[in-house]
Specification:
This protein is mostly beta strands and about 625 residues long. It has 2 helices and 33 strands. It has a 22-stranded antiparallel β-barrel. A hairpin with a 3-residue loop joins strand 9 and strand 10.
Length: about 625
């Protein structure tokens, strides 16, 4: 049965890939329509609602010096020392999904938001290439990326993206190689829409387990000679994700054979439903190997004392099939109601321990737009199978004008989620456990407000969390019996005066739970000068920015990392953080080409060498980084 199950999943992935290309070949038109806007537009399509919103393109000079993919999203991370390695943000990210095993959490931040698909709209083919490096001696990560997108007529867009990271690491057995390939397809017809994203990401890592003695780092410029816990351990992790959202208006009248656009029915009436289908397929496999045999780093050996070869495999397939109704109320108010079936099928395998489960539930989304008020509610309730009784509910309301938020957005959420299969039952050479955890619960209240005129953004979130599942100081799953309280607040502000610019953010955390280690403060600033140099004879423009970036994380207990399972866990050995990172940079942009030079962590050695973002994983040393980004139309 298990072999048949695996075979069907692999077959499904292959058919999905063939299906995407078949759609392009059969539906695409080689001639580009003149009706499409000539500029490139990047859209973020929600898998929940199907609505798209315009997002910023990475083509501006400001921020081009931020080469690390994770620091583009948040300034504070628990990381292992160089790009391409697992990492967790220093903020609360909510309860995980029942069908997503915990060992994947530190890898998922290299992927897109699971609720969003990025699609494009451009009259002519658009390409962008970027590269950054520190030269042949760069141990912290060289990055190469390429993106290409084009429209096929007015109805179809296809985009492809490739990203590659290679890092040697400052310390012994710390190298990493990460590669990502992503494809997206958008089909927008009068009666049919489909947004598809296919991503494949692979990690090939050396797992050194950190340095043996933290004091060896002090005053030692020969970091490759410092002893590490694991000299031969490696891991390979591969993730494939296929996501999509589609709707079909079966009963919509055909448009008249005329140039009169008024004959096309764009919105269905309240009695004519749209058929909605959302799907999300995930495949993940992690292999951990170590030919060193018995090692004091691991306290237990269950299978082989000579070598370790552990394998974890995970598959999940989630489907939502709903009917959606639209309507028009008095005062030009719009309403939408969507409801249907929610189904999950998932599987986890570890050393002859095979578990596959499924759950069945109902879900729905409702929206009401009245004048400038937008109200949205969505939820899922599982009534059968694994996690029967689980639910997720979100209520959100805010003021909008022309699709742009103009006032505070209030969000209320409630979740009740069963534990994932990985923390329930696991067997490997160094770890094994069997648990029967209670259902986790989370109740949240959040407020966010973007004040565009003031260049100010605010957010405040509070949570009550019951039965929190975490990994303890022994790197084994455990559950907190009492209720935890957590609140976070963030503020970002941009200042501008003549050529002076300063972009600042402050993020505050508070929790009464030691099992959720978070710094009380994560702050960052990018302060620089901006100059536009015009050339009268050639009518050219050279943009120049130079300044400094500062990131700071306050002192907190922080995490340790377990190579055998790939999870971050609690530690009681030392306090981490309480250290600023200071970088200086220079950026130049000519037309569509950007160049930057950055001296990263220039204060290295001046404020102490014994700095660790994660227990026994030293911080990156001072290094030079340079790079370019070039975007163009074909």
């Amino acid at each position: 049965m298990n072999r048949g199950f695996f075979l069907s999943l692999y077959l499904m992935k292959g058919l999905a890939i063939i299906w995407i290309y078949a759609l392009v070949l059969t539906c695409a038109h080689p001639a580009l329509s003149q009706d499409i806007k000539p500029d490139i537009v990047k859209l973020s399509a929600s898998l929940q609602t199907g609505l798209t919103e315009i997002t910023s393109m990475d083509t501006l000079i400001t921020g081009a010096q931020v080469f690390h993919p994770q620091y583009k999203n948040f300034p504070g991370w628990s990381e292992l020392g160089n790009m391409g390695l697992p990492a967790l943000p220093n903020r609360y990210t909510g309860l995980g999904s029942t069908n997503t095993p915990s060992f994947l959490n530190s890898y998922l931040y290299y992927l897109e938001d699971p609720d969003k698909i990025h699609v494009y709209n451009t009259k002519t083919p658009f390409s962008r290439i970027h590269y950054n490096s520190g030269g042949t001696g760069d141990k912290n990560g060289q990055n190469l990326g390429f993106m290409y997108t084009r429209n096929f007529g007015r109805e179809i867009n296809m985009a492809g993206q490739f990203d590659f990271i290679s890092s040697g690491g400052d310390y012994m057995n710390q190298a990493s190689v990460e590669s990502t390939i992503a494809l997206s397809l958008a089909i927008e017809k009068s009666r049919y829409k489909h947004y598809i994203s296919l991503e494949r990401i692979q990690f090939k890592l050396q797992e050194n387990g950190g340095v043996i003695d933290d004091n060896d780092v002090i005053g030692n410029d020969y970091s490759r000679l410092i002893s590490v816990n694991l000299e031969k351990a490696t891991s390979k992790t591969g993730i494939i994700r296929l996501r999509g959202w589609q709707y079909l208006d079966i009963l919509a009248p055909q448009p008249a054979d005329s140039t009169d656009s008024t004959s096309v029915v764009k919105n269905p009436g309240p009695m004519r439903p749209l058929l909605i289908h959302r799907y999300n397929f995930n495949s993940a496999r992690r292999i951990y190997s170590d030919g060193q045999g018995a090692n004091p780093f691991y306290s237990e050996i269950f299978i082989d004392s000579i070598a370790t070869m552990d394998s974890l495999q995970h598959y999940s397939f989630v489907n939502d099939i709903n009917a959606r109704f639209h309507g028009l109320l008095p005062d030009s108010s719009n309403w939408m109601l969507e409801a249907g079936i929610h189904h999950e099928l998932f599987h986890l395998y570890s050393y002859e321990n095979s578990n596959w489960k499924q759950s069945l539930g109902i879900g729905g989304i409702s929206e009401l737009k009245w004048k400038n008020l937008n109200f949205q509610a969505k939820g899922i309730f599982n009534f059968a199978g694994y996690g029967a009784g689980d639910y997720q509910m979100t209520l959100k309301t805010g003021l909008v004008h022309s699709g742009i938020s103009k006032g505070p957005v209030v969000k209320i959420s409630s979740k009740s989620v069963s534990s994932d299969l990985f923390v329930n039952n696991f067997m490997s050479n160094h770890f094994q456990w069997t648990n029967d955890f209670s259902r986790q619960k989370e109740h949240g209240l959040g407020v966010s407000w973007i004040l565009s005129n003031w260049k100010l953004a605010l957010e405040l979130n509070s949570y009550l969390i019951s039965n929190w599942i975490y990994f303890d100081a022994l790197a084994k799953p455990a559950q907190k019996e009492s209720t935890a309280f957590l609140t976070s607040a963030g503020i970002s502000k941009t200042f501008k005066a003549g050529p002076f610019r300063s972009k600042n953010s402050v993020f505050l955390n508070y929790t009464n739970a030691d099992e959720i280690p978070l710094p009380s403060l994560v702050a960052s600033t990018s302060t620089f000068m901006h100059h536009d140099i015009h050339f009268k004879k050639t009518h050219g423009l050279l943009q120049v920015e130079y300044g400094l970036d500062v990131r700071y994380t306050s002192a907190y207990k922080g995490y340790a990392y377990m190579p055998a399972t790939g999870v971050f866990h609690l530690q009681n050995e030392r306090v981490l953080g309480n250290y600023p990172f200071i970088d200086i940079f220079l950026i130049m942009q000519v037309k569509r080409t950007r160049f930057f030079v950055k001296w990263d962590h220039i204060n290295s050695g001046f404020m102490g060498d014994n700095i660790f973002p994660v227990l026994h994983y030293p911080v990156k040393q001072r290094y030079l980084k340079f790079g370019f980004s070039w975007h163009f139309y074909d």
